[in-house]
Amino acid sequence: MDFTTAQKLVAEHGTPVLFVSANRLRESYRSLAAALPGVELFYAVKANACEELLVILRDEGASFDVCTCGEIDIARRCGIAPERCLHTHPIKTERDIRYALDYGIDLFVVDNEAELNKFTPLRDRAQVLVRMSIQNPHCLVNLSHKFGVSPEKAFALIEKAHEMGLRVKGISFHAGSQNQSPMKYIEALDYCRDICWKAASQGFPLEVIDIGGGFPINYLEPVPSPAQFCRPVNEYLERYFAGYRIIAEPGRILCGPSVTLATRIIGKSLRDGVWWYYLDEGIYGSFSGKIYDHCDYPMAVARKGKRHTSVLAGPTCDSFDVLYENVPLPLMEIGDILLFGAMGAYTNASATTFNGYEKAKIVFVD
Ligand SMILES: Cc1ncc(COP(=O)(O)O)c(C=O)c1O
Questions:
Q1: CA-CA distance, 75 to 86, in Å (whole number)?
Q2: 107: pLDDT confidence band, cut at 50, 70 and 90?
Q3: Relative orientation angle of helices 183-201 and 226-240, to the nearest 10 degrees
Q4: Where along the chain do its domains lie?
Q5: Relative to the CA of 104, which of 48, 84, 276, 310 has its CA 20 to 30 Å away?
Q6: Backbone conformation region of residue 335, classed left if phi is above 0, alpha if psi is from -120 to 50, else beta
Q7: What digits encode the pLDDT tens for the residues 221-248?
Q8: Domain 3-17+257-365 -> CATH class
Q9: How many A from CA of 180 to the centre of ligand 1?
Q10: How many helices and strands, by DSSP H and E, does the chain display?
Q11: Rounded distance from Cα 142 to ligand 1 centre (Å)
Q12: What is the DSSP string of 45-66?
């Protein structure tokens, strides 16, 4: 978003504010759908649960990855049919399972025996995917640290589930968020092939492969386009998984690029020769992604001129609430607007109202 447009919108809506470009959101969905033909896209609601955003994706044809009763409520309020939802949390209470079943969701993810036991009384109503771990320490967020059975043990768990009379539909994995390499998906799919072959030869063929999320977006460094990134994954799926139902759970790549944060300088102070600027948005707000998502966002300022090493801090009383140290900025004034791009994923989702600050307003623009 350019500064002239942002200034006009800010005059109307105030700051801090997250502008969501509905067109950009649609474009993200369409380009991923085109990059992964034949793959059902289940938007990971946790990335950004804003209901207007979900409705736009619903109208584009998306399905939804939900993890909790709260996310199911959101899906229900957005008019999303249960057949278009998949429950992906590997650890659930009995209430969580029944809540999802009562809504009509019947496909769940498991990664351990204790979880299988929870499904035995419900074997006629529920089907499961077994989540396999795939270690990826080099991505932004390794999603196999906490969940997933190792590839070597995945088949045994599937076999166990089958022996217990559960309906095991297939395998899921998450190759790591903001994944740098499509080869991680191929590594995981190699394991899936082996597991599928074993299951078929034991007489219980699997039908579903869920390749998770992880597709990267441009933050400070450019990444390949969805089409480029997905090409090898796509080719592999076509070659070895024809006839399977293929699912993906994209979060970041759908909601991330469409959102711009506008925040305002509310105070400035020269401290030990360094300019400190205090913004009306910080670590406890939309910038929570800097902590939880280990993420950094592209910044733009309108002022020109000689740059000075500066500090940008959030508004709260906590000294931890410092966003950027050593950032080169022109001399800024109170009231100046700063724009941060690609702020749609894991930002407002984890924002708090610490210190009495309200969460940034969300405004949809075209
Ligand atoms: C199970 C699961 N699926 C999908 C996602 C979405 O991942 P991404 O935003 O990297 O596409 C996540 C993210 O935490 C996840 O835990």
A1: 11
A2: very high
A3: 20
A4: 3-17+257-365, 22-254
A5: 48
A6: left
A7: 999 999 999 999 999 999 999 999 999 9
A8: mainly beta
A9: 15
A10: 11, 16
A11: 10
A12: GGG---HHHHHHHHHHT-EEEE
Residue 177's identity, in one-letter code, is S
Tell me the torsion sign for CA atoms 130, 233, 295, 261: negative
Residue with tokens 């077994």: 130
What tokens does 308 get?
């000075």
AA letter at 254: L
Quick one: which of 251, 349, 217 has its CA closest to 41? 251
Please identify, in words, the CATH class of the domain defined by 22-254: alpha beta
Per-residue pLDDT tens for 187-219? 999 999 999 999 999 999 999 999 999 999 999
**Average pLDDT across the chain, whole number:** 97
> Strand 322-329 relative to strand 361-365: parallel, antiparallel, unpaired?
unpaired
Contacts 24+ apart (CB under 8 A), 218-224: 218/257, 218/298, 218/342, 219/178, 219/295, 219/296, 219/297, 219/298, 219/342, 220/296, 220/297, 220/298, 223/180
Q: Give 175's Cβ-side CA count (13 Å radius).
A: 26
Q: Has this prediction a pTM greater than 0.70?
A: yes
Ligand 1 binding site (Cβ under 6 Å of any ligand atom): 44, 46-47, 65, 88, 143, 174, 177, 212-215, 249-253, 345
